[in-house]
Amino acid sequence: MSLVRPTPKSRAVRAKAIRSQEARAEAAAAQEHATFRGRWLPWLFLLPTLLVLAVFSYYPAARTLRLSVFRANLIVGNEQYVGLQNFAELLSSPVYHQVIVQTLIFVALVVVLGLTFALSLAWLASKPIAGAKFYRLMLIYPYALSPAIAGTLWLFLFNPEIGAVNTLLDALIGVKPRWLDNPFLAFALVVVASVWKGLGYNVVFYLAAIQNIPGDVMEAAEIDGASAWQSFWRVAFPLLSPMTFFLVFTNIVTSLFDSFGLVNILTRGGPVYGETGITTFLVYQLYEDGFRNFKTGAAATQAVLMLLLVVCIVAMQFRYGNRKVHYGA
User: Would you state the pLDDT for residue 218?
Assistant: First the structure.
């Protein structure tokens, strides 16, 4: 065994590397134990953000909680304390029961259809084909539109008299459906428009998740003789479960609140079916009571109930997320 005597140059390089390593360790230790010099300095940095949150979030939320226990009218201006009577009347109302059922059906359809189409399109768009970047951009594009613009586009497309869809159907098979007058057609139209509007958001996340799937795992499945469907369902889909779980809860919250713009442009809550309009969902019923009927107390009560609903959804996401979702490769 031969020993090589280090040269002065190699000793200098080694000493420099040791000093650099020690400097990085000291910097990491200093960052770990970094503290503000003054006790009030961190609060000073947080003050602008806290002021904005207080004015635009906390104060309105507090006012809403207060109004929920009053019977108030925006026009008359009087307030009468009724305690939990607003909640009792709302939860016993047949109109509100119908709105809840319609909202649940709408949310379930939007989430299931939206994630199914988004995953299918993202899986196809992830393949190495010519023009893949262009196809991905076109899939993501609908999410860039505001709900009002998206609703206007669908309104022009499905206008019973001059819409492009009815013009084409009339030329091909001689029918012109009344999309906005028939309750079931109107409901289906709002569902499809909502799925299309959220498609880009879901595709972006699914594309990112698909590109992070280890290639050797898919190659191993192919070598073992798995078909294309078996590779997707047995291998890829379980690896996509964390993203699917995240998107399920995100789409639930989005469909609860982001449907207002589409409904307001397309149907304005109608057409009437049963006790109320078939496309009147929870957020639109809140708008109707608060800004059309000027029942601010009832609207505040609905806002509180929707807040509790979202809190329950988020709590379920955090409670069961790590238990039911597979994160391993």
Answer: 87
Q: What whole-number distance in Å separates Cα of residue 223 and Cα of residue 95?
A: 58
Number of continuous H segments (helices) and E segments (strands) in the chain: 16, 4
Q: Please state the pTM of the whole predicted model.
A: 0.83
Q: Where are the domains of the chain?
A: 88-324
How far from the centroid of its chain's Cα atoms is residue 202's Cα? 9
- E runs forming strands in the chain: 70-72, 79-81, 272-273, 276-277
Instruction: Enter the tokens of residue 73.
Output: 């009218």
Decide if domain 88-324 falls under CATH 3.40.50.300: no
Given a contact cutoff of 8 angstroms between Cβ atoms, the answer to whether 286 and 299 are in contact is yes
Query: Distance between CA 149 and CA 262 in Å, rounded?
Result: 9
Both structure tokens of 101? 């059922």
In the chain, pLDDT over 90 holds for what percent of residues? 49
For the record, the structure tokens of 255 come out as 């469909």
pLDDT of residue 8: 62
Cα gap 140→326, rounded to integer Å: 27
Mean of pLDDT values over 125-152: 84
Is residue 325 scored above 80 in pLDDT?
no
pLDDT in the model for residue 260: 92
- Picking from 110, 318, 118, the residue whose alpha carbon sits closest to that of residue 208 is 118
